[in-house]
Amino acid sequence: MRIKNTLLALFMLISAGAPLVAASLSIDTEYRLRGISFANNDFDATTSTDAVNYYSQNLKLSVKGNFAPGVEIAASLSALGVAGSTYTILDVPAYPATNFTPFVDSAYLKISNLGDAPIDIYAGKQNLQYGDGFIIGNNGNGFMALRLLGRLEKPIPWEAEVFTAKISEAYKPDSDHDIYGAVAGLTWSKLLWEAGYFEDRDFSGSKYRQGLLEADTRDIVKQYYDFRVGRREKFANYHVEIAKQQGYILKPDRTKVALDGLGYILQGELVGENTKLGKVVARALFQCSTGDDNTLSLDDTDESFTPTLMRRSDGLEKFGYGELCAATPMGMFFEVPENYSGINTLSVGAAFSPLYAWTFDVTYYLYSASQGPRGAPTASGFERIFGAEYAMGVEMDLSAKYIHSKFAEFKFSYARYTPPNFAIFWPKSNPASRYQLEVSTKF
Question: What pTM, to 2 d.p., does this model score?
Fold first, then answer.
């Protein structure tokens, strides 16, 4: 009822005022319903108490108006929750509410070509994502930020951006949580080159966690040096991203823990437009990150790559590599044993469209860790070339998507994950499964 009243009031306000002040106004609505079923989450086929079934829903209403040349004002409301429930089974701290109560996920002002210069300003709550969201990602709940963008077309097309964003406010500079960043990119030799610097300054007293251990902090300062290069063509594209993490953690007793991590992504795809299977897209990805060599201590240098603000949520579901595991450098859907650190993913897959409006997809994911316990199963030879050491299991994803129209589409997916054969941490190793039926619409 609350979201109904909120949306009704917003529509009435727009309808009454828009014709008088806005040169153009657009209203977009998106709704997504997912029926999800998990089976055998404890990897023991002899039990049946670990099955989970629910419907999750996600609604978004966006309004954008151009009130004068170069002036744009936009806002969006979101609501997400489990149908028939006021709580969720997954921890999703990215959102202020998960009981289908609406919240403002963005509300910003954009001024283009400030003073007739090639400079744009964004002010307000907005979605920030750079690259694939490896360091800062869009979870669907924006950051309160101020961004300044500049660009030039000659002699080489390039653009640059600086920004600052507020994560939490405690009314004192030494108690807030803020991020700062600068990104510059140019196109040269048909390649997009991009370099960035990001600083995450958390003085809010957040916990420092390593494996199953945690400690209080005064300051957490993380600095990222990010480099991306990529190329996109009609029949092929690829990109490489490398990120170096440095910084420190200051504990209440004034002792410091140094941070020194590294992460990178290699990915590409090939596209065949007219094959016997219709359009075919073949893709491969390898994501690797360093892990801490001593996960049982919170006092020595931490070599793990832990970008706190990377994208990790997709509504009420985890976001990452694989629909079930949803792996990221910081973890996965299943609890990672404390002796493992630095989660890596190698994946290969293909999508093909033999029928009009239908797309079928199959993808395999091979998971590994950069650090792990003695005696654990080792990663594949190819993974070890790039720094992975210990096997973390394998996942297979299958899906079929049907596009009914530009307003509606349907998707069914099945994912199966098999953990490594290592009885110390996985006494049973029967596969876990996830089934999902998704209906999405926009208008």
Answer: 0.87
